[in-house]
From TrEMBL:
Catalytic activity: 3-dehydroquinate = 3-dehydroshikimate + H2O
Enzyme class: lyase
Name this protein carries in UniProt: 3-dehydroquinate dehydratase
Gene3D superfamilies given in the database record: Dehydroquinase, class II
Catalytic residues (UniProt): 23 (proton acceptor), 98 (proton donor)
Listed pathway(s): Metabolic intermediate biosynthesis; chorismate biosynthesis; chorismate from D-erythrose 4-phosphate and phosphoenolpyruvate: step 3/7
Organism: Bizionia sediminis
Length: 142
């Protein structure tokens, strides 16, 4: 059984109430419950923090023993050299995801410190971005 973790960064705990025109009306807990039901043969764990160091600590904790990490570092994607360095330092493959199409938003969101070290990047498919990342791990021999 594949063991995957979804790591979410700042403000993603507000999904369902935060800017629903961009992020939708579904809470992440509701989405995650549905995802777990659709993939009963995959262990899916979730971690969310608004704190950069906590995200780095979690990446280091799971980054040598899990089958995959789905990472939405949110705004830290565009600002955190530390999170990018943590992704580069671990062995577990990482797929960077974003709910919105970051390339259709402000210019600063076009830069990612994670992407150069990630297995891949999925942007702009709403919460389905997470499922697409999950499917990438199931389709690969990682």
């Amino acid at each position: 059984m594949k063991k995957l973790i979804i790591i979410n960064g700042p403000n993603l705990n507000l999904l369902g109430v935060r800017e629903p025109d961009i992020y939708g009306n579904l809470s992440f807990t509701e989405f995650l419950d549905n995802l777990k039901q659709r993939y009963p043969n995959v262990t899916i764990t979730h971690f969310q923090s608004n704190i950069e160091g906590a995200i780095i600590d979690k990446l280091q904790e799971v980054g040598f023993s899990w089958d995959g990490i789905i990472l939405n570092a949110a705004a830290y994607t565009h600002t955190s050299v530390g999170i990018g360095d943590a992704v580069a330092a671990i062995k577990t493959p990482v797929v960077e995801v974003h709910i919105s199409n970051t390339f259709s938003r402000e210019d600063f969101r076009h830069q990612s410190f994670i992407a150069p070290h990630a297995k891949g990047v999925i942007v702009g498919f709403g919460l389905q971005s997470y499922e697409l990342a999950l499917q990438s791990f199931l389709a690969s021999h990682v």
